Amino acid sequence: MKIVEVGDSKKLANILLTVNVGWSHEPMGKRGISHFLEHSIFLRSEECPEPDAEVAKYGVSLNGETQPDRTIFFFSSLPEDAEEVLEILLSLIYSPSFSPEKVEEEKESKIIPAVVKESDYAPWELAYEWARNLIFEWDFRYSMGTEEELRGIGIEELREWHKRYYNKHNSVVLIPKGIEFPDVEIPEGGIKPEVQEIKYEEREKVIEKGLGNAEIVCAFPLRKYDIRAYLLSTLLGNFPTSKLWRKFHKEAYMVESKVEWHNVKGGFFLYFGANSRDFESICRKMERFLESLNFTNEEVEMAKKTLAIEMLERDNSIYRMENLLHLDPEMRFGSLEGILKAIKGLELQDINEYASQVLNLEEMRRVVVR
Measuring CA to CA, which residue among 127, 143, 306, 318 is closest to residue 208? Predict the structure, then answer.
């Protein structure tokens, strides 16, 4: 198991464990199994038959989340209690006991009701999710499975999925310095999951919803992880001083720039909440804007400070370990300090060159909901 020591525990210990298998790895017939297993793990283990009551003694609640490329488990506790709580969590993750009654109850009350429906999404969310589909080659509509497939998944299927992917070689834990990792037996074997890719024919998708405006997401594939993507995102959107907002604030009620990494691939997303249904004109303007895009040294230095403040604010959250994992999914820098140091060392030429590489109109995917 890869153990990454991150910062000091100080007043609060935040611990996160990731098992690198998620819903983008699920084949047809098993869609929804990652989320189902995540819930089932929290029900009990032989060592801890009542986990909620046990961790409550420490004032703690255990949390989990099923993501496209991983399943994460995390908690916050007082530093002096962290090792005991982590030992409980490890027993649940790697030695769950699947009670038939509890597992079936969880499926009916929590898992099947969570099945995704496109109608659950606001128009801007729908545009963004479809843009992610085109970049990452998955389908968000099956992220929580289908009712039919979930009804065919029982304890034996959960055990098999667990045996395949819940092992030492497919796990990473982020833990504060000074907290000892418990001496717990963790399975050795297992295999690495494979992404179930969907090849989409179109590069543009227009979804008619009868809106008075257009929600637009322009997306660019990122072939490999690069810290420059975050600084470029800050330079372009999200802030009143950003280039994107200054250029489009008359045509759009909101703009945003966002970076994501999943399954070793990345996506760079530009969102426009257009003030009208006429998305063609704003898209033409955006293309001209990107073709002539160039930053100044002053803009880069200002963006570095803006990004540093944003990252440090998130680092004060109880989700600090999850935020760090999203920023540095392969843990190349090992800490927020390492990320900030790398960003501080970037120069104007680095950013202008990177922008010209990744914001390639020939590579762009576009989704419009109007």
Answer: 127
Structure tokens at 33: 């199994």
Q: So what's the pLDDT on residue 9?
A: 66
186 assigned to some structural domain: no
Which residues have CB under 8 Å from 45's CB, separation 6+?
Answer: 51, 91, 92, 95, 96, 97
Is 311 domain-assigned? yes
Q: Which residue type does 43 have? A: L
Strand partners, 14: 76
Instruction: Please tell me whether residues 10 and 145 are part of one structural domain.
Output: yes
User: How far is residue 28's CA from residue 196's CA, in Å, rounded to a whole number?
Assistant: 9
CATH code at 79? 3.30.830.10
Task: Check whether residue 39 and residue 112 sit in a common domain.
Answer: yes
Specify whether 129 is located in the same domain as 222.
Answer: no
Contact 45, 51 (CB under 8 A): yes
Separation between Cα atoms, residue 286 and residue 271, nearest integer Å: 11
Q: Which of 47, 59, 40 is nearest to 90 (CA)?
A: 47
| Contact partners, residue 227, CB within 8 Å, separation at least 6 | 333, 339, 342, 343, 346
| Edge-first strand listing for the sheet containing 265-274 | 204-207, 365-369, 214-222, 265-274, 252-262
Question: CB 109: neighbour CB atoms within 10 A?
Answer: 10
Cα–Cα distance measured from residue 323 to residue 315, given in angstroms and rounded to the nearest whole number: 7
46-102 pLDDT per residue, tens: 899 999 999 999 999 999 999 999 999 999 999 999 999 999 999 999 999 999 999
Residue 254: pLDDT band (50, 70, 90) is very high
Domain carrying residue 159: 2-177
The total domain count for the chain is 2
CA distances from 201 to 82, 137, 263, 265 (A): 49, 11, 21, 19
